[in-house]
Write a structure and sequence with these properties.
The complex is a heterodimer of chains A (350) and B (110). With 350 residues, chain A is an alpha/beta fold. Chain A is 36% helix and 10% strand. Chain A is built from 14 helices and 8 strands. Chain A has an 8-stranded mixed β-sheet. In chain A, helix 3 packs parallel to helix 4. Chain A is globular and about 50 Å long. Chain B has one domain (19-108): AhpD-like (Up-down Bundle). Chain B has helices at 21-34, 42-55, 59-71, 76-96, 98-108. The relative contact order of chain B is 0.09. Classes of the chains: A alpha/beta (350), B mainly alpha (110). At the A-B interface, helix 9 of A face helix 3 of B.
Chain lengths: 350, 110
């Protein structure tokens, strides 16, 4: 797998959050997201609760995907420490979140990844723990080969990106050779029981467009993926989540380099769906950064947009009641979550 | 006007109602109905539209339905096969008239 530099590693101007926000806010002919939300009666956007604690365990990754909103890659050094994890364990014990969603980078590259999961399970046996596994990490070196067994032992739910059911579109987005390695990893997960009917071991895949276009109907795509992956590679999985690419970070860079930025933003705006806006994931999620900072979602985290001023902004100050009364921080990139059937870490929302 | 075709004009398609509203409205209402899921799925109709767009060689339609077909999850091979179907019908349409040519030649030949 060929490794390329992240925007941060290349000292690219878009590695700067302020620059990204400036690009998004200055684009002419694009209406303001807050105004659009206001017209739908959803402004200010308020949470419905905190059902999902999404934890970003670090930006290090063995892949450098072209669309990555995290700008993750092998050269990123930001990683969650065991001290921060201990603070999170106290929170988990106190609040019993229904879902804990572990993401990165590749969360498995955090040296305390396994310990952290074991400790979560000691404190909460019932909660759903999701790991966003990029698949190729399972084959990245021998020490990761037993990950399917580890996931199974702790009854983790796996969510993995596979932008298309063939090598061409997958490798264009995720890097040369990623598709075939992902196929091998999926076969290993199937072998452990993941994605198999009645195993209770959930394996969900994520489709996101490999270019400047929007995802199709999630159910239709799921049918195509199930048929093609089963016929060609004997792979099974549970559900496919269709996710829209967010116009930030490396995908923003791609849009600008290919002169697609304005057209893509117009597409998102034209597809604005109030029903999708009402169901956005930031309404029932709180996102924790590798350093313990709090954000309304993983996208805001990558833009450095912390939770509202005056509200808890770090896990050490976590207060469920206060956070449930916050206003969600929004900006122009939010059009990405409200287009068409909507987009969340769990796929379509409307 | 520098060129006959401007990609931005695609997004102004709806403006044709400015000069004739009643007919334009009827066209768009019918058009939207045509592309809904029905006896054929919206996905199948998208691929038919892509093939027809190439048969009628409409740059706006090729732009719109290349985008639509990719969004609907068709892969590159499927889309190119649809274009080959359009090309085969166009080519066949010329060639099948060869029978007329042959008939004529036979009519006037000893």
């Amino acid at each position: 797998m060929k490794s390329t530099k992240t925007l941060h590693g290349a000292h690219h101007p878009l590695a700067n959050n302020d620059r990204q926000l400036e690009v998004l806010e200055m684009e002419s002919g694009i209406p303001s997201f807050p105004h659009r939300l206001e017209a739908s009666g959803l402004f200010p956007l308020k949470p419905t609760g905190i059902d999902i604690l999404q934890i970003n365990m670090g930006y290090m990754c063995n892949q450098t995907c072209k669309h990555c909103h995290v700008d993750a890659g092998p050269d990123r050094k930001e990683i969650m420490t065991s001290d921060t994890m201990n603070e999170l364990l106290t929170l988990v014990e106190k609040n019993h979140f229904p879902t804990i969603d572990l993401t990165g980078g590749a969360p498995e590259m955090n040296p305390d990844f396994r310990w952290f999961i074991e400790e979560i399970r000691k404190r909460d046996k019932a909660c759903k723990i999701i790991v966003r596994c990029n698949l190729t990490i399972i084959l990245a070196n021998k020490s990761y080969n037993d990950l399917p067994q580890f996931y199974k032992h702790h009854h983790l739910e796996i969510v993995s990106s596979l932008p298309f059911y063939n090598a061409d579109r997958t490798d264009r987005q995720r890097g040369e050779g990623v598709f075939m390695q992902s196929v091998m990893a999926l076969q290993m997960l199937n072998e452990a029981g993941y994605g198999k009917p009645d195993s209770g071991l959930i394996l969900n895949l994520v489709y996101n467009p490999s270019g400047a276009f929007l995802p199709a109907d999630q159910a239709l795509l799921e049918n195509d993926f199930k048929k093609e992956l089963k016929n060609n590679y004997d792979i099974e999985f549970n559900n496919l989540f269709a996710i829209t690419n967010m116009p930030i970070s490396r995908f923003l860079d791609y849009l600008m380099q290919t002169n697609n930025f304005h057209k893509y933003m117009q597409k998102l705006v034209n597809a604005f769906n109030p029903a999708a806006a009402a169901g956005v994931m930031c309404r029932n999620t709180i996102s924790v950064g590798w350093d313990g900072n709090l954000y309304d979602c993983d996208f805001n985290q990558m833009l450095g947009l912390k939770t509202e001023d005056g509200m808890p902004q770090h896990i050490r100050d976590f207060d469920l009641e206060q956070l449930n009364n916050r206003s969600i921080v929004i900006n122009q990139h939010c059009f990405g979550c409200t287009a068409g059937s909507g987009s969340s870490c769990g796929g379509a929302v409307a | 006007m520098d060129t006959y075709y401007n990609p931005d004009d695609l997004y102004k398609f709806g403006n044709i109602t400015e000069f004739q509203k009643a007919l334009g409205d009827k066209f768009f209402s019918w058009y939207n109905e045509v592309f809904k899921d029905s006896a054929l799925s919206a996905k199948e109709k998208s691929l038919i539209a892509l093939a027809v767009a190439h048969a009628v060689q409409c740059p706006y339609c090729i732009d719109a339905y290349s985008n639509d077909a990719v969004e609907k999850g068709y892969n590159n091979e499927q889309m190119m096969e649809a274009v080959h179907v359009a090309a085969a019908i166009r080519g066949g349409a010329s060639l099948v008239h060869g029978v007329q040519m042959m008939n004529k030649v036979k009519d006037i030949s000893m």
